[in-house]
Write a structure and sequence with these properties.
A hairpin with a 3-residue loop joins strand 2 and strand 3. It contains one helix and four strands. By secondary structure, the chain is α+β, with helices and mostly antiparallel strands. It has one domain. This is DUF2188 domain-containing protein.
Length: 75
């Protein structure tokens, strides 16, 4: 599945998806970071069978609100 990018609170995130036997793995990485947050979406209820990609994207965008943000640094 193709990667997805979106912006939230001035931060651009890139999401890469990987299909597994158990479901989907999403790696969400803020554009300015080398670290990725990994989310698992197990097979089962919750996916729109007509739009799995849209379901995964909606889940990732909602999850970003729960990801702790790093404190700003002073230079």
């Amino acid at each position: 599945m193709e990667p997805h990018s979106f912006e939230r609170d001035g931060i651009v995130y890139e999401v890469r998806f990987e299909r597994t036997q158990e479901g989907w793995i999403a790696r969400i990485r803020p554009e300015d970071s080398a670290e990725a947050h990994i989310l698992a979406f197990p097979n089962g209820p919750g996916f729109d069978p007509e739009d799995v990609r849209g379901s995964l994207i909606a889940g990732c965008e909602a999850a970003v609100a729960q990801i702790p943000r790093r404190a700003p640094t002073r230079h």
